[in-house]
Amino acid sequence: MRFAALVICCFALACGSADAYVLDAGTGRFTNPPVGGVRASVPISGTAASYPRVAEMWAAAVRYWGGVPRSCRASGVQFKLSREDSEADPNDTETSAWVYDGELCSMYFNEANTDWPISDENTYAWCTVVVHEMGHMLGLSHSRRKQNMMTGDWIPDQAPECFQFATDGSRYVQRIDDPFYTPSGRRRTAAQRAAYLRKQRAKRR
């Protein structure tokens, strides 16, 4: 099984421990929680790692999630090019990547679609895909919320960390409510995130 961003095919991941961090009721839990804070890094390699800005997009994803996947910290992360996956449609016209749930330290890029290779014009789109796919590396499944970074239908313009790659000159405007950012786009503190989650859990009771 794989997790993908086509912008995006839906697959589910089994939940982890009961006290794991939950984004929302439909997202799942961290089974490979981020560690080390935003300064954490892991070695990256693979056939896609040498492409321009892949390392910068990975750094943006690390900043978004607040650290690197726990189990990948020592082994590193592989960025691989593929057109052989049974669900990688060679006719895709959107950015396309996936993470297999049994291979959480590897991210595959579909080089068969028309948005490959990475260029100045599509780096922002690829960055949001990388952020989404890192969520799967961390063990999160897809969200039922359409404006969550882990949504299974499309990737919203959610990650401020990626907006450095936008080429249209527009300014980022945060339009959603989630545990990571306030509606104005400011990153929530740990205390605010915890309070947000308590509030969301109370709503679901």
Give me the Rg, rounded: 16 Å
The proportion of residues forming helix, as a percent range, comes to 10-25%
- Total domains, how many? 1
Query: Tell me, what is the CATH class?
Result: Alpha Beta
- The CATH architecture assignment turns out to be 3-Layer(aba) Sandwich
Average pLDDT score:
75
Share of β-strand residues: 5-15%
Give a short account of the largest sheet: 5 strands, mixed
Give the helices and strands as they follow along the chain: EEEHEEEEHH
Please count the helical segments.
3
The total count of strands amounts to 7
Overall, the morphology is: globular
Q: Tell me the distance between the termini.
A: 32 Å
Uncertain residue ranges? 6-22, 172-176
What is the CATH topology? Answer: Collagenase (Catalytic Domain)
Spatial sequence of strands, sheet with the most strands:
1-6-7-5-3
Question: Could you characterize what this model shows?
Answer:
The chain is of the alpha/beta class and 205 residues long. The strands form two sheets. A five-stranded mixed β-sheet has the order 1-6-7-5-3, with helices on one face. The longest helix is centred in the middle third of the chain and has 15 residues, at 123-137. The protein has one domain: Collagenase (Catalytic Domain). Helix 1 (54-65) packs across helix 2. The protein is built from three helices and seven strands; from the N terminus they run E-E-E-H-E-E-E-E-H-H. The model is unreliable at 6-22 and 172-176 (pLDDT under 50). A hairpin with a 5-residue loop joins strand 6 and strand 7.
